[in-house]
Design goal:
The structure is a single chain. By secondary structure, the chain is an alpha+beta fold. It has two domains: 284 residues, Aminopeptidase (3-Layer(aba) Sandwich); 82 residues, RNA polymerase II/Efflux pump adaptor protein, barrel-sandwich hybrid domain (OB fold (Dihydrolipoamide Acetyltransferase, E2P)). The chain is 28% helix and 26% strand. The longest helix has 18 residues. The chain is globular, with a radius of gyration of 21 Å.
């Protein structure tokens, strides 16, 4: 039984600028399984911080009772650099100011990092292959020399996540119902988590095009399995982005309930002992391809007037919102209709009603693949 608080110092890019990155290791150091959790990678998305605040207490209590069957690594606020992005009394936190990089994009490609060497290390034992692949990743990480603050922050995080069996990245949308992003290979596990979360959707794809954090870990194993079909290579890491509603859904009792459901999921997976703290949840919708989710965007700047609610079922061609024009000959009188391009459920809307050209209006989770989605499936 052990709880360790760890603080890493990120050296700043300018004189006098240093930042603390704090995380916790909880549970048996020799446990065979490991769970990695983080929140607020997009620092302006904060429900996850409060969820992990509560989950920490549940895990520490479980550890004191000898109930933890796995090692838990918890980063309650994984992006202190983004948390410091405050200007004119407004917090931003989605993009690194120095580089312009989205904090949840352009993470290193671990498959590319080790593919040249991995073939010689694989055996006919799945367990040995998992161990050897992780050793290669660990060696690659040890050779990296991060320079700027963003690289340092990412390096600290990756050193803790690379050997985890579960990697869960807690986010939120703008104004949204809870949902999950994951890979098809993890659908069964994440469908169970969806039930415990009460998720409105589980959206799957092998590669969204943005090299997001959760895909670093899952696509390593799926790509290796395809590259070496004659070798037993399991999906050793189940990783996902968990979207806990919207940015304004940071409430103590609500997020405490989220933490309890997350704890119960770990119990259901055999990672925490003891009697289930909650009854089994109802089933949630089956996973759908992310390419079947429409992201409606604005053709020009304006003020949004929604005609649909979250969770509402719509048909293709239904009116979703109207955009009130703010300039031109018909300024403040013209309303531009925005229609659904697919049938499905309204998963999210924009919290902010003043929007500019190309801004996101809504996500509609459908079942029909949409060629218009292209290869880049994320919302920046």
């Amino acid at each position: 039984m052990a709880v360790t608080k760890i603080v890493k110092i990120i050296e700043g890019d300018a004189p006098g600028k240093c930042t603390e990155l704090t995380y916790f290791q909880i549970g048996p150091a020799d446990a065979k399984r490991k769970i990695f959790l983080q929140a607020a990678l997009h620092a302006d998305e904060q429900p996850g911080i409060l969820i992990l605040h509560h989950l920490l207490e549940y895990l520490i209590d479980a550890d004191s009772k000898g109930l933890l069957k796995a090692r838990f690594v918890v980063f309650p606020m994984v992006n202190p650099l983004g948390m410091g992005d405050i200007g004119f009394l407004q917090h931003q936190g989605r993009y690194d100011r120095s580089s312009g990089v989205n904090f949840n994009r352009q993470w290193p490609d671990l498959y590319a990092a080790i593919e040249e060497h991995v073939g010689a290390y694989l055996t006919d034992s799945a367990e040995d292959n998992v161990k050897r692949v992780r050793e290669l990743v660990q060696h690659w990480l040890s050779e990296q020399q991060p320079v700027n603050a963003l690289q340092q922050q990412r390096h600290y995080v990756m050193q803790e996540a690379f050997d985890a069996d579960y990697v869960l990245d807690l986010h939120c949308d703008s104004d949204s119902l809870p949902h999950i992003f994951t890979v098809p290979q993890s659908t069964e596990v994440m469908q169970n988590l969806s039930d415990w979360m009460g998720a409105a959707a589980t959206l799957v794809c092998e590669a969204s095009g943005g090299s997001s954090f959760d895909e670093v870990w899952s696509t390593l194993w799926s790509r290796l399995a395809k590259q070496f079909p004659n070798k037993p290579i399991p999906q050793a890491t189940h990783s996902a982005t968990l979207e806990y509603r919207g940015q304004f859904d940071t409430f103590d009792e609500l997020n405490k309930t989220d933490a309890r459901h997350l704890y119960a999921f770990f119990q259901a997976q055999g990672l925490i002992g003891g009697e289930l703290i909650l009854p089994l949840p109802p089933k949630t919708p089956s996973a759908t391809d992310l390419a079947a989710t429409e992201m409606i965007k604005t053709p020009q700047a304006g003020l949004l007037a929604y005609t649909v609610e979250l969770g509402q079922q719509v048909k293709k061609g239904d009116l979703i919102a109207e955009l009130i024009s703010l300039d031109g000959e018909e300024a403040f009188r013209k309303r531009i209709p925005l229609y659904a391009g697919t049938a499905g459920v309204v998963l999210s809307r924009n919290t902010f009603k003043y929007v500019w050209r190309g801004a996101s209006v809504a996500k509609i989770v459908g079942k029909e693949l949409l060629p218009s989605r292209g290869k880049y499936l994320l919302q920046d």
